[in-house]
Specification:
Elements (H helix, E strand, L loop, with lengths): L2 E7 L2 E8 L4 E5 L24 E5 L7
Antiparallel strand pairs: 1-2, 2-3, 3-4
Length: 64
């Protein structure tokens, strides 16, 4: 990973940003609890992560 940053609220991880070779990602540590725009969220490690969800952005993607 080339870059990552995490943001907390009350000493708990809330959101993370990461830059990789093929994409950038926005993580929601309790993303499974979000009710809107679920189609944008993916589970980065099916079977391993329960709550973490992310949105991936690749070159040329339109940001909704």
């Amino acid at each position: 990973m080339g870059f990552s940053r995490f943001y907390t609220l009350n000493n708990k991880n809330v959101i993370g940003l990461g830059a990789f070779k093929s994409h950038c990602a926005l993580w929601f540590f309790k993303g499974s609890l979000l009710q809107k725009n679920q189609s944008l969220l993916i589970n980065p490690q099916e079977g391993k992560t329960k709550n973490l969800r992310q949105i991936r952005f690749k070159a040329g993607d339109q940001i909704p």
